[in-house]
Design goal:
Layout lengths: L6 E5 L2 E8 L2 E6 L13 H5 L9 E3 H6 L12 E3 L2 H14 L4 H4 L9 E2 L14 H12 L5 E3 L5 H10 L10 H6 L3 E5 L4 H4 L11 H11 L2 E5 L12 E4 L6 H14 L5 H7 E2 L1 H9 L9 H8 L3 H13 L2 E5 L10 H14 L8 E4 L29 E3 L3 H6 L4 E4 L2 E4 L5 E5 L3 H4 L3 H7 L5 E6 L11 E4 L8 E3 L6 E5 L12 H11 L3 H5 L4 H18 L7 H6 L3 E2 L8 H7 L13 E2 L3 H4 L26 E4 L15 H5 L7 E4 L1 H7 L6 E6 L2 E9 L7 E3 L8 E4 L3 E4 L24 E8 L16 E2 L17
Parallel strand pairs: 5-32, 6-17, 7-14, 8-9, 8-12, 9-10, 11-23, 12-13, 17-18, 18-19, 24-28, 25-27, 27-30
Antiparallel strand pairs: 1-2, 2-3, 4-5, 4-19, 15-16, 20-21, 21-22, 24-31, 25-28, 26-27, 26-31, 29-30
Helix pairs in contact: 3-19, 5-19, 6-15, 10-13, 10-14, 10-15, 13-14
This protein binds ligand PGD.
Length: 787
């Protein structure tokens, strides 16, 4: 690449053009993106960062003693080895566990002891998307694997909506309707633009800000219901309500009661389009349990005046109202309830058939939600068939590893955890994303072997036995596209692979070859041949519509290609026109305000307020007086590129910052910049204090994503010195129905840290790596001299 070469590339947080100038990679956001994300600035530092993994690594204990459960996993150091040795050892272990030519030719399945659920966002790119790669590989060499369902983003909400509304993806919200038609937008959990900045697979246009500004200019009013002021853009006409966290359902019930009491419920809508309202009404009025869910009842729980609740209900009934709920609300105990209750409230208002009214889920939680769907197929890498019929709800990974054979519930069924001997992970960072990380640490001591592919030395690599260094997306070519984004991006290679990093595809191909499964895994194609093959259906569809349809080589050398969008899906419109002819994908075909399946779980059969264990109105708040909001970070996507410029600019001395209210800070003698300790019954973390009146008293906010660095500190116990909140969060399912991640809200105590301050652990120091001395090398293996 010459210095003036402009190349395009895609990331989950935006499309960009790049060129090398004066030895650095310069990044410019895509010219057609109206509101690019500052997270793009994390990319340049990544290419040559010292945290990049340079050679395959084997954990010393595994190298010396072979596979088996091992408490040293996570404590041990690593030995650098040559690629051939690492690949041979990994292939030998996969073969010991049953992988081989019989399996890839459709013989007996051997993957029932292999966890390949391997959750994570990985990188943009349709071919190198490593979740697709790992699943294809495990399906090939083992015939299948124990997988995972749902996501850390939206399990509780997704599961409940699937049961009572049909797949939420069938009812996409629409930014166009918000911009043009909505008169009142009530956003439970706000509409955080920092979350809108990312979308899995890439996003070329960030449209939320301009849609909200257009709505505002038209006179639309907004209500943001969230403890954090910056969960909603600064616009005129924003009413900000900050109920106690975890009490939104009570607030909605108070509104519902007022609608009922003042005769504003649309019973015609309920009769025609919904099922089971009578059960809910009995609960709402107190006929069922003796407690009327009045605004005064709700006010006690939410810590908001009853008058504000009544006012909100009045406003909702008198305007064309859209109710949206952020993913964050369901990432908590009983997270199904706020989603189901908001849907019920929208049904009670009965305005749903009007454009701009009704309900949506996760409108700004994911960048591409709210954009129209595409009208052409996108390139897809087939993953093969998983012949192991066993999946866990994704956030039950620690339980799976710790409790083989034990029962658990999911969607009204009882299932049993498998006995996992091999964990194979690529494209995720479980020691960032999971809750109660000390429990996960215990879980990771149990398998015989843990293999991880990573580009950088994340906390999760510490808990592996074999680490393969993978390329970054910038170091390979690919096709960037996502089903609701209007541009398909030629992801041109921006730099050669760093050190000895290899593409995940190349690593899996080498392993497949050693297992005599290369043909089944690769189908005889190189990466470029796969890209060409995967591109063809899109090109053909474009050509059939008479649209520009460049051939593959032209596309890969060109600019992002605009794709046609489908006419509005109108699934809800068709349902509203004729609910019998166009039923929803629910057991009754209607919107279910009563669900038999939910009633067969540990939740009531209708939406309800259920007191969580960890909230400010509960017993535990007498011990731990702060509600920790562990939300998505502003300066990066999850834990990715945490060492990048934007992410680092928001830290203090490499440590994550936590925000707290000035009143709390003054009471506890905490100044802006002081280091504080946050702790509870599960562990502790250190963070730098930021004093802010953007959040009310008794709340502390610490985003996820700092790389987990636990130290056993005297007087503090196991403490993450970098500021990862997941040492504090609870590893309990949202409920027995969804088993979703409930990491958003946790009770903690806080105090200024006055003891000697341990340094934050830099990203490049997460692993202890020993270079193998010549005498240690087994015969025939060349010792590494790489720096
Ligand atoms: P990422 O940081 O995106 O987090 O959890 P997730 O594991 O997805 O991790 C992706 C990893 O993949 C990175 O380490 C990156 O280096 C690696 N990677 C990227 N590209 C490639 C590649 O091509 N090849 C290989 N081999 N590796 C690659 C996110 C999860 O966290 C999510 S989605 C949510 S919504 C949850 N949010 C919360 C929350 O709100 N609160 C709490 N307490 N906890 C959460 N955890 C969840």
């Amino acid at each position: 690449m010459t210095t003036e070469d402009i190349r395009y590339h895609s990331s989950h947080w935006g499309t960009f053009a790049a060129r090398h100038r004066n030895g650095t990679l310069e990044i410019t956001p895509f010219a057609k993106d109206p509101d690019p994300s500052p997270v793009l600035d994390n990319i340049p530092a990544a290419l040559n960062h010292p945290a990049r993994l340079s050679k395959p690594l084997i954990r010393r204990g595994w190298l010396e003693n072979g596979p088996g459960p091992d408490r040293r996993r996570g404590e041990d150091d690593f030995v650098e080895v040559e690629w051939d040795e690492a690949l041979d050892l990994a292939a030998q272990e996969l073969r010991r566990l049953g992988a081989g030519p019989d399996q890839c030719q459709g013989g007996p399945v051997a993957g029932a002891q292999v966890f390949g659920g391997s959750y994570g966002w990985a990188s943009a790119g349709r071919f190198h998307h490593v979740q697709s790669q790992i699943h294809r590989f495990l399906n090939s060499v083992f015939g299948g694997y124990v997988g995972s369902v749902d996501s850390y983003s939206s399990a509780a909400g997704g599961v409940i909506l699937d049961l009572v509304w049909g797949n939420p993806l069938n009812h996409p919200p629409s930014w166009r309707e918000i911009a043009e038609d909505t008169e009142l937008l009530i956003a439970f959990g706000g509409l955080a633009l920092r979350n809108h900045s990312s979308s899995p697979g890439g996003t070329s246009q960030h449209v939320a800000r301009s849609a909200l500004e257009a709505a505002s200019a038209r006179g639309c009013q907004f209500v943001s219901v969230s403890p954090l002021r910056d969960d909603f853009a600064d616009l005129p006409e924003v009413t900000r309500l900050a109920p106690r966290p975890a009490t939104d359902v009570a607030l909605m019930l108070g509104m519902a009661w007022h609608l009922h009491d003042s005769g504003r419920v649309d019973h015609d809508y309920l009769a025609r389009y919904t099922r089971g309202y009578e059960h809910f009404e009995a609960y709402l009025t107190g006929r069922a349990d003796g407690i009327a869910k009045t605004p005064e009842w709700a006010a006690e729980i939410c810590d908001l005046p009853a008058g504000q609740i009544i006012d909100l209900a009045e406003r909702a009934a008198s305007k064309r109202t859209h109710i949206t709920v952020a993913y964050s609300l369901q990432r908590s105990r009983y997270g199904e309830e706020p989603i189901w209750m908001a849907l019920t409230l929208a049904a009670m208002l009965g305005q749903y058939p009007s454009p701009g009214a009704g309900f949506s889920y996760g409108l700004a939680s994911i960048g591409n939600l709210g954009k129209p769907p595409l009208d052409v197929p996108l390139p897809v890498l087939p993953q093969g068939r998983n012949r192991v019929d066993d999946v866990i709800p994704v956030a039950r990974i620690a339980e799976l590893l710790l409790n083989p054979g034990e029962p658990y519930t999911y969607k009204g069924e009882t299932r049993h955890y498998a006995d996992i001997r091999l964990v194979y992970w690529a494209g995720g960072n479980p020691f960032h994303h999971h809750q109660d990380l000390e429990k996960l640490r215990e879980g990771f001591t149990r398998p015989d072997t843990v293999i991880i592919h990573e580009s950088v030395s994340t906390a999760s690599t510490r808990y592996a036995d074999i680490i393969f260094p993978a390329t970054l997306s910038a170091e390979r070519e690919d096709i960037g596209a996502s089903s609701q984004d209007p541009f398909m991006v030629p992801m041109q290679q921006l730099a050669p692979p760093r050190h000895e990093a290899r593409d995940d595809y190349a690593i899996f191909t080498e392993l497949a070859a050693r297992l005599e499964c290369q043909e089944s895994f690769t189908e005889g194609r190189t990466s470029r041949e796969w890209l060409r093959h995967m591109y063809e259906p899109t090109r053909r569809a474009l050509s059939q519509r008479g649209l520009p349809a460049p051939d593959f080589d032209e596309f890969m050398q060109g600019e992002p290609l605009e794709l046609p969008v489908a006419p509005a899906q109108g699934r809800m419109t068709r349902f509203h026109e004729d609910p019998d002819a166009n039923p929803l994908d629910t057991p009754s075909g209607k919107l279910e305000i009563w669900s038999d399946i939910v009633a067969s779980s540990d939740l009531p059969g209708h939406p309800a307020w259920i007191e969580p264990e960890e909230w400010l109105g509960g017993k535990l708040a007498r011990t731990h007086r702060f509600q920790l909001v562990a939300n998505q970070p502003k300066g990066r996507l999850h834990s990715q590129l945490d060492f990048g410029a934007t992410s680092m600019s928001l830290k203090q001395d490499g440590r994550e910052c936590a925000r707290l209210n000035p009143q709390d800070a003054a009471r506890m003698g905490i100044q802006d910049g002081d280091v504080i300790r946050l702790w509870n019954q599960r562990g502790a973390t250190l963070a730098a204090a930021r004093i802010s009146d953007d959040l009310p008293p008794s709340i502390v906010q610490l985003s996820t994503g700092a790389w987990y660095a636990p130290r056993d500190l005297q007087g503090s116990g196991m403490t993450c010195v970098n500021g990862n909140p997941n040492i504090l969060t609870s590893d309990i399912g949202a409920s027995g129905l969804s088993q979703g991640c409930a990491g958003q809200l946790t009770l903690v105590s806080i105090a200024r840290w006055d003891a000697p301050l341990p340094d934050a652990v830099p990203h490049e120091a997460m692993l202890e790596i020993a270079r193998r001395r010549p005498r240690e090398a087994p015969p025939g293996v060349t010792p590494s001299g790489d720096a």
